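Is flavin mononucleotide placement plausible here? Inputs below.
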Amino acid sequence: MNIAVLYGSNRSDRQGIKVAKFIINKLKDRNHNPVLVDSMSYELTFLDKMHKEYEKGKAPKNMEKIHKILKNSDGFIIVSAEYNHSIPAALKNMLDHFQGEYYFKPSAILSYSAGPFGGLRVAVHLRAVLAELGMPSIPTILPVSSVYTAFDENGKAIDKNYDQRVIGFIDEFEWYLKAYKNQRAEGTPY
Ligand SMILES: Cc1cc2nc3c(=O)[nH]c(=O)nc-3n(C[C@H](O)[C@H](O)[C@H](O)COP(=O)(O)O)c2cc1C
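Reply from A.M.:
I modeled the complex. Tokens:
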């Protein structure tokens, strides 16, 4: 499956990039084709129009690249920190400016935080937003606590619990990826 891994943090000392690398490695191990969509490497500033509001092919270059990746994806993994119990602005900015690219595809939430709660409060907020965007999230959330020490720079788990917990998370996501893909092949209402 083609899976876009969406991550939005523009902090110079950002930690979530290790979480994104971790899930990308695990998806590759399962023969998927994950692509990282990262607000920082795409140099996304606060966006002006939604992609669909530009004339065809006239959106800023990086938005066009992201559009193609999202459109080509079968599902999305949202790698999200918790900023004041909610969604980081860089991530929300990226999510908000695309729309039809997400429709009739599933998402899965991988939240994280520096503390012990693994970003569970942002996960609750994200569920509502992802449903509105047309990519409902699967029931299981993978919350990562103590993010500063959980993974190394290459996304390898230092806390080996994550190597176990990710298995069921991907198993469940795969089920929804297949179910939605099969049903999309029958057509969609819009
Ligand atoms: C603006 C801001 C707000 C934060 N708010 C929370 C919070 O509400 N709950 C929490 O557990 N951690 C919070 N943290 C700590 C983050 O969990 C931690 O810094 C994490 O590494 C941020 O993700 P990033 O490094 O990928 O940007 C906050 C961090 C920042 C920068």
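Short version: The mean pLDDT is 98.
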